[in-house]
Amino acid sequence: MTAIVPFLDIAAGNRELHLELDAAYARVIQSGWFILGSEVSTFEREFAAYCGAEHCIGVGNGLDALHLILRALDIGPGDEVLVPSNTFIATWLAVTHAGATPVPVEPLAATHNIDPARIEAAITPRTRAIMPVHLYGQPADMAPITQIAAKHGLKVIEDAAQAHGATYLGKRTGTLGDAAAFSFYPGKNLGALGDGGAVVTNDSTLADRVRDLSNYGSRQKYVHDSAGYNTRLDELQAAFLRAKLSVLDDWNARRNVVAEHYFKRLTGADVVLPAVIDAARPVWHLYVVRTRKRERVMRVLAEAGIGVQIHYPIPPGRSAAYAETSAAKVDCPLADTLSREVMSLPIGPHLTIEQVDLVCEALLAALDAA
Ligand SMILES: *Cc1c(COP(=O)(O)O)cnc(C)c1O
Fold it and tell me: Which residues form a coiled coil (predicted)?
């Protein structure tokens, strides 16, 4: 059956912005310039300013953004990077692609974000960086993380792919570590109409290295200083993203209204609701609840036409991709439990309160029946 309440209605966002998106398309088509032009450089300035950072470098996607940061920091074979045990696999893959080893750290059960109290036990002489993920749109608890990093001489790389505009102690993600990676995959809070990503940092040397690596290791055409990659944000996507950036705060605020309504309707129900730490202002990329009755509840919700999803059903360390690696041997019982119990309810800037009520009524009935 078709969804009465879709998990996320991207087309509704495009309809709302169609004049701006059409104008962006027309500008780029008429310019005849598609790679590394004024749309990209302008978007980079605008997004850096939005984050409150010095530099933004547009790249091809979020995975490449993470990978290029590691490469620019010379993190590679023989090095270890601490990653959450319960993230999207891209966080781990970036480390693997750089030739380094991902070392999982378990989350706080309440927030699902990396547990600062478990970080030091995972540090070895080979550890080079901590890569916290601002999972589901809530900033990780960055103050203790950066403190531990400073004490051990480690870099902090934010995976901000789900947290455009979220703040921690009043500072936006992208400015909370040494460098941050963003994804502009269409379903993200700031989404392009295709793939896209960015590196954000206050470190000029790092920014230059990322920029070179993203464009064939070259600053001057046909002069190649390093064995770089081709992973660039293109002009069309940058133009679309400029239109989307102008409404990001408004759309994040609308997500927040949805989240507030879920809290209001679901508090007291037999389901674990998201916990938010005092220092954080999340942007609700996802609204994730926990229940041991997930399979039955999801079946009932699907029958009622409610789009629910699981983020994520298999922890990276349990996936076939990591089966033969040292990371798979690290026990992560909390990641295992979360992967069995989490369920993401519909959320987005175009969900109506009537739709949120439908979700809540269907969920409450499903929980009772299960
Ligand atoms: C989406 C996502 C990425 C990867 O972004 P892509 O643009 O799809 O490569 C990385 N980390 C997290 C946590 C994500 O959600």
Answer: none
